[in-house]
């Protein structure tokens, strides 16, 4: 297998900073406290005014869609357009845009919002999505090999991405269906990957971006996959402990986020 495509210096530096951020995030979430939104929002005073959950998701996720989309629309030279159209660049970028079109525009309208999100969390997520949108767009549209081919590795990574997205979408839908309109409480999720793990949506998300990193085979993609796991695995563990404490009959064989392992 060929080595990961060498990114130009700026993408390398951006990816290294995100990888360092992933480590810091995992440590902060594991040793300090869960990110204060959703069921872990207690004690969120000091994190800013409450933003309604739907608006929070739209605002914070939009930059990851808008930055690459605007960059694509602004490409002017034939060389720039050729790099964007090279199959090894176009495929992972299209997958990234598909995910964020759903997450920023469709998911917030489908969800059954519970607690509001503190503005500080929205601001941090917005900054992360802007940074990540810029880094991934810069890689695929300015620094990636201009003739990147579609390799068997890229196709295999895209298949894993698709499987992860399917798990994530199914799990998000199962959670939406747990609440009737107006309800804000919690129930035990069942069906699909929830039979194996407490946080099937996070499992799907982690799988999705791991597959995507294999498809893109770049330092920025690897850094994003690492950050996603660093963010969601500790939170999944916190959700898992919360479920066990709240529901005495909670299924004992369920893991937190990685089936049969964790
Ligand atoms: P959660 O699973 O905490 O919550 C998702 C939604 O379902 C919320 O509206 C929540 O309500 C509701 N919900 C959760 N569990 C239950 C339950 N047992 N009974 C009833 N309702 C429930 O996920 P997040 O909000 O953290 O994430 C949402 C999506 O965004 C996921 O698909 C996740 O993978 C993705 N995400 C991706 C990240 C990344 O780094 N790439 C980071 C964070 C999220 P309430 O808000 O009231 O708890």
TrEMBL record:
It comes from the Eukaryota. It catalyses: a 3-oxo-5alpha-steroid + NADP(+) = a 3-oxo-Delta(4)-steroid + NADPH + H(+); androst-4-ene-3,17-dione + NADPH + H(+) = 5alpha-androstan-3,17-dione + NADP(+). GO terms for molecular function: 3-oxo-5-alpha-steroid 4-dehydrogenase (NADP+) activity. Coiled coil: none annotated. Residues 117-262 form the 3-oxo-5-alpha-steroid 4-dehydrogenase C-terminal domain. Belongs to the steroid 5-alpha reductase family. Its EC number is 1.3.1.22. One of its GO terms (biological process) is cell differentiation. Gene3D superfamilies: 1.20.120.1630. The chain crosses the membrane at residues 12-35, 55-75, 116-134. It comes from Raphidocelis subcapitata. Converts testosterone into 5-alpha-dihydrotestosterone and progesterone or corticosterone into their corresponding 5-alpha-3-oxosteroids. It plays a central role in sexual differentiation and androgen physiology. It is a multi-pass membrane protein. Pathway: Plant hormone biosynthesis; brassinosteroid biosynthesis. Its main location: endoplasmic reticulum. The keyword Oxidoreductase applies. It is an enzyme of class 1 (oxidoreductase). GO terms for cellular component: endoplasmic reticulum membrane. It is found in: Endoplasmic reticulum membrane; Microsome membrane. This is Steroid 5-alpha-reductase DET2. Pfam families: Steroid_dh. InterPro entries: 3-oxo-5-alpha-steroid_4-DH, 3-oxo-5_a-steroid_4-DH_C, SRD5A/TECR. The lineage of its organism: Eukaryota, Viridiplantae, Chlorophyta, core chlorophytes, Chlorophyceae. Keywords: Brassinosteroid biosynthesis, Differentiation, Endoplasmic reticulum, Lipid biosynthesis, Lipid metabolism, Membrane, Microsome, NADP, Oxidoreductase, Steroid biosynthesis, Transmembrane, Transmembrane helix.
